[in-house]
Structures are given as structure tokens and as C-alpha cells.
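Complex record, two chains
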Amino acid sequence: VTRDKKPIKIQSEEEFKEIFEEFYNPLVNFINQYLSNIETSKEIVQNTFLKLWDKRNKILIQTSVKNYLYRSAKNGMIDYVRKHQKLKIVSDDEERILKNLPDTDDAYLSPFIIRNEIIKAMEHLKPKNKEIFRLSKLEGLTYEEIANHLKISKRSVEDNIGRAIVILKEQLSKNTSLFK
Amino acid sequence: MMPEGHILLKYIDKTASTEEVQLVDLWLEESLDNRKHYQRILAVHYESQHLKNYTVLDVDSEWNEFIDNKVAFLEPIEDSLPHRKIFIYTAAASILLISAFFFLFQKSDFVTTATGSDPLTLTLPDASEVILYPNSSITYNEDLGKGNSRKIELAGKASFEVVSDKTRPFLVESGFVTTKVLGTVFTVDSYKSKEPSILVTEGTVSVAETKNLSNVRILKKGDSVVFSGGSFKEVIRARNQIEPIVSSKQSVQEEPVVEKEKKIIPESDKQTIEESAANANIPAASRPEAKNPEKEIKTTTKEEVKEKAVKPEAKLSPFPVKKAIDFLVDKHDNFSKSRKCKFA
């Protein structure tokens, strides 16, 4: 389902669930980037979706679901920070930084969507390819460390990573809204 | 012909040999499609460098939590019926009441269980379990396992382990306080009838003042709420933050924080789409961290939870200003670069 076309009206719970599955993890990671608290980030995003659910029959999203969710989650985070400002958890300056996040540019969410799609697309890699990619990107091992660990040459690791990146790119290209 | 993946990566990382650079440059100059292809490789390569810090949550379990939250927070404790249906329901209710009137003369619908000096464990008709503390009593309809909702009246103190049923909320009415759950473990202590308290051991509970069911507080695992004089007194969060219940009159007198807040347009109002007024039922964003679920409600007391609340184990992390600035500047620059084709 294309989520970048406009406008959109959410017709059913199934459609709502699709949106949830597509954007939940990117939104949590987007919020967590600032709050460094995964439980709070989850809660803010849960609230974001609760608000959307509550209004699903009443609204026609004029921009895009991505833009709507980005703005709603960002505002939820700002409301949270403002609420806790009284408890001296954050300062005025810190709140200002968040408030300066743009309303109309959802590009701040895009990297997290791409990361989420990369992880999903990893399922399309061959087992060895996937393992080498995982060790490199998710575990943070160097090419030399992977080569030693798997008893293969460094060149073979480079080949595998290069091949994985191209396959992942092909998978991500199937989502037309991902790369504008 | 497209260069091999590892050559493209070396080109991106600027570790390619002169020959490899020439090969890639020639390929890029060939067509716009090649440049788009390169641009996407660049984006995937760049973003994959950040996967180490990307948290992958199980979306299925998060969706289930969302469904639980949806039922608990968006459906009010009191039954709300569409106006156009009220007449039909009223007529149906009248018939039922008349039938019930005759039925009541034949048989009592309600079951009351009371304890003396010893506690009692009992299983309700819906298979939920109750530990009834000494000198307490509960009353419920004997059809508790069949109706549209499951309502219990409590005097004294009891712990409930409620069988999950998303279609039939479990309501515990205890004087000033009404508690609504879908399936969870919690304790209601109304020994002091004017100062009842609720402690949630597992799951999510919404608590309302019986006299004003729209005044709701949402409690999660480890949270507790204390009443005083029939109204909320304080909510003790498992995160160790005590939220005093401030009346609207009090908050108007608060200076200067409230004054400052008045000037700030709520961010939610900035949505281009009109927000409904349902936000009152949306839970606050300060919730406990739910790890290590424990079901040992029999030994957990309100005092123990308060003791736990003093420990700073779940303190909110300080807000990372520098990280945020670095992220905004670095991310915006780099990602913008990665999205622009330098040959376009």
C-alpha cells in the first residue's frame, strides 16, 4: 500500500494495522533518538496510534500518512518533554531543540524507515550473505574480524557485503515511496 | 555494465583504486538510471551503518498491546450508547426489567462471599481468581461468566487475577472507586472506605471516581493510586514519579510555570487535521518500564510498592541535547547529500 499518495482515509482495521506495522518501529526509533528511553518512546508512539485510531473515521489525511505520523509523534514527544519540564528532567533549551523540528519535512523519519526496510529485506539474502551482513552492520565487526571468525578471506567478506547491499537496494526499490 | 557491489562500496568509501574509480565514473556518466541506482546504493549503505543502534521491536506484540490500550483507553467505563439507539434499548430494557422483576421473586441473581479473620481464595464464574482478605466481602451476579460485562462490588480488600476477555471489561466497584480491566492482576484496598487504593501488579487498569466515571487514571504494572475523600489523591508511578493530583483551581494559581505554558500553543493543536476531544482518555506518556512480570500478588502490599518507588532504578535518562543537535545537523546534511545525485 502506498502511503505517500494523498489524500488518504483509513477504511478498515486491516488497513490501520498495515500502517501500524510499517511505521511503528521507525517512529519508536525516531523518538528514542532524542529521549534515549525505549519504554517512553514506545508509549509516545502507542499514544500516536491511539489518537489516529480515535479519529480514523473522521479525518482525511491531506498530506501523507508518513507526514501525519511524523508530526503527531513529534508533537507527542514535545508534549511529554514539556510535561516533564516541571520535574526538571529537561531544560528550556532542550525543549527548544525539539520544537524546532520541522512540521512539514518528514525527512527526519525517512532514515528510520529505510533502516526498518533494510532489516525486513535481509530475509531475502542467502544465509551466508545474511550472516556476514549481520556481523558487519548489526554486530559492528570489521571485515578482518569477520574473515577471521568465519575463516574466509577479507576479499570474500567485501564481496558478500557488496552483494548484500545491491540485493537490499533492489528489495527496497520495490517500495516506490521509499526513494523519491 | 554495473560495477560489482564491492567496487561501488570502495568507491563510496574512497578506498577504490584509480582503475576502479574510472570504471565507476564511466558507468555513472552513462545514464540517469545508473546515477539513480548509485544514489540508492549510497542510501542503503549509509543507513545500514546505523543498524547497530536500531531497536527492532516485535510488531505483533506491540500491535496486541495497542489493541489492549485501545479497549482500555478509548472505550469509556460508563456505557455510551448512540442517541438514535437509546429508544430501542430503553424499550428492550423495560421488557427485560419486567421479566427480571418476576424472575427476582423466584431466585436471587447475586452471590456474596465474605471472610472473617482468615483470607479466602475463590474462583469466579468467569474463571478469574480472587484473594479475599480478612473482613472483606465481594458481591457479583451469578451470571458473571456470561454477560456483557463483569461487575464486582467489593468491601474491604481483595486481589484479582482477571481472565483476559477483551469484549467484556471486568469492573470492580468499591465505594468511591471503580476499576476497569481486561485481564490483569491488581489489588483493591478499601479497608479505609474514604481512602481506597489500587495497586497494579500486571497489565493495565483504568481507575475512575465512582461519582465521576469520566475522571480516569490509567495505571500500568507497578503503579498505584490513592484516593482521599472520594477523589484521586495521588498516582504513584513505577517509574518513581509521584504525580500529585492538582485541581484546575490550584493549577491556575501556579506561577510562573503555568503562565509560561499558557503562552505555548499545545503542539497537538498544530495538527492540520482537527483533533477530537478524546485526548482526555489518552494515557500520559509517563509509564512504568514493564520488565520481569511477577504474579506474586499474594505477598505484594501497597507499602512494598511505595518502598520500591523510592529506589532510583528506573529514573528517566537525561535528555541528550548534544546528541540531538549532532543528530539534526549531521543527519540532515548527510542524508540530504545521500538523497541528491551529484550528477543530476
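Note: Chain B touches chain A through 75 residues (CB under 8 Å).
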